[in-house]
């Protein structure tokens, strides 16, 4: 974990600081997201200038991935608040350290002028001043359709970038993680067909509430992995990630199976070309989903049967 002593908030960048304010302003995740988009644009423009010759390309790429990942996480913060307060200082330290490392090595005063005059100080001060707990986190009970669409899109981005920022965590569970991306992507596409009016709601009413619960579960999984990325923990995390991933799959694949049943019954006679393409794509992936689900369900049952006698002794 990054310590406050190692990366103080006030000395934010090399050679210049941001004024201290006694009253912290509450900054929304939307503002932070816009700041990060601006910084990514700044990095992109730097790459096509002569200054790029004095920058470390690998560090630049790492900063880009980190910022893109944090941007997606900020979208999640609006809907899923558990644990996000604890992560925001870590995000600030992470971004600060990456920016400082990248630009300090160049020794180019012009780069520091550009950095000072552009968006980095604004971004870091907003992170320092943010209070995620006040972002009106929305529970699954009150989430509107538009909010659910935004959450599903943000989760899709997170699932795409997680392996890029901490690839070693997923080496033992690459197959399971790809299955998660496949299952979640298909369910998000199915929800898109509902939103676009390609599927009548009355035919799939039973499965709709499960999408919100599924999104929350995947969101919490992403937040836990964000903490792993920031803490830079040891090799034991690989086993923990595998266990969490299998547990998550056992929770969300039943939603996929219910959608599969709907596709082969209620939607079988649909004349919509979009629905037809989705069903074809979804059914092609079904054997892999079913096989992995049965494998992990069997393992789960073996563990439960093995532990049952011990639990009985403990309860008696």
Summarize, please.
The chain has 316 residues and is mainly α. Helices cover 70% and strands 0% of the residues.
What is the structural class? mainly alpha
Tell me the major beta sheet: none
Which residues sit in consecutive blocks of at least 5 with pLDDT less than 50?
1-26, 82-86, 131-140
Query: Using DSSP, what is the number of strands?
Result: 0
Please characterize this protein's 3D structure.
70% of the residues lie in helices and 0% in strands. With 316 residues, the chain is mainly α. It folds into two domains: 29-134; 145-315, no CATH class. The radius of gyration is 23 Å and the shape is globular.
Q: Could you outline the blueprint of secondary structure elements for this entry?
A:
Layout: H1 29-47, H2 57-79, H3 84-104, H4 109-117, H5 120-129, H6 145-165, H7 174-195, H8 208-231, H9 236-264, H10 273-315
Primary descriptors:
316 residues; mainly alpha; 2 domains; 70% helix; disordered N terminus
């Amino acid at each position: 974990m990054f310590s406050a002593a190692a990366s103080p908030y006030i000395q934010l960048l090399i050679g210049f600081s941001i004024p201290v304010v006694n009253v912290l302003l509450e900054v929304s995740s939307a503002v932070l997201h816009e700041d990060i988009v601006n910084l990514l644009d700044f990095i992109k423009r730097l790459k096509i200038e002569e200054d790029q010759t004095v920058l470390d390309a690998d560090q630049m790429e790492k900063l880009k991935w980190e910022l893109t990942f944090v941007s997606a996480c900020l979208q999640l913060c609006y809907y899923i608040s558990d644990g996000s307060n604890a992560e925001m200082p870590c995000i600030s330290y992470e971004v600060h350290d990456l920016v400082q490392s990248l630009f300090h090595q160049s020794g180019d005063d012009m780069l520091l002028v550009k950095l000072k005059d552009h968006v980095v100080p604004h971004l870091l001060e907003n992170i320092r001043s943010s209070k995620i707990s006040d972002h009106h986190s929305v529970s699954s009970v009150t989430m509107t359709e538009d909010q659910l669409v935004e959450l599903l899109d943000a989760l899709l981005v997170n699932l795409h970038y997680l392996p890029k920022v901490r690839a070693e965590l997923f080496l033992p569970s690459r197959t399971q993680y790809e299955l998660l991306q496949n299952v979640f992507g298909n369910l998000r596409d199915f929800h898109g067909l509902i939103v676009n009016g390609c599927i009548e709601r009355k035919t799939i009413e039973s499965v709709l509430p499960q999408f919100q619960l599924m999104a929350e579960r995947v969101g919490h999984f992403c937040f836990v992995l964000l903490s792993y990325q920031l803490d830079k923990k040891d090799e034991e995390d690989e086993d923990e990630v595998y266990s969490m991933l299998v547990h998550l799959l056992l929770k969300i694949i039943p939603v996929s199976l219910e959608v599969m049943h709907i596709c082969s019954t209620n939607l079988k006679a649909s004349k919509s070309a979009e629905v037809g393409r989705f069903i074809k794509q979804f059914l092609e992936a079904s054997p892999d989903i079913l096989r992995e689900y049965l494998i992990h369900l069997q393992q789960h049952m073996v563990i439960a049967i093995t532990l049952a006698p011990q639990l009985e002794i403990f309860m008696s």
